[in-house]
Amino acid sequence: MSLDGGNFLMLEKYVQLDLNLPSQRVYGLGERTREFNLEQGTWTMWANGQETPYDDGKGGKQTYGVHPFALVQTKDPKEFMGVFFRDSNAQSPVLVFNDDNTSTLSYITTGASLEIYFFFKGTAK
Description:
It contains no helices and 12 strands. The mean pLDDT is 79. The chain has a single domain, classed as glycosyl hydrolase (family 31) (Immunoglobulin-like), CATH 2.60.40.1760. The strands form 3 sheets. A 5-stranded antiparallel β-sheet has the order 1-2-11-10-5, with no helix packed on it. A 4-stranded antiparallel β-sheet has the order 3-8-9-12, with no helix packed on it. The radius of gyration is 14 Å and the shape is globular. By secondary structure, it is mainly beta.
């Protein structure tokens, strides 16, 4: 994951941070009724206290919780990294797979208060 070459855009209504990820094996981003590994798409998360009828990404439905943590497997299958977005606002991470087997995660949120924690080089455990 690198911030070099990434973009940070802040407007009055939302914040967007683009991250380059080392693979297309990305897991997490929310509590939803679908597979743990993510496909390309938009993964809208909004804590509304009830299961939402709205589809996100490839059609998985969000349940009650918002867990904005992405676990990324690196090129080494035994090595992982993670990013946690501490944010209580409406958020829509967008995952795009690149031709070189990497991916781009665009984290988009409303509001300007955001804490980001990076977890580098370790096991998934």
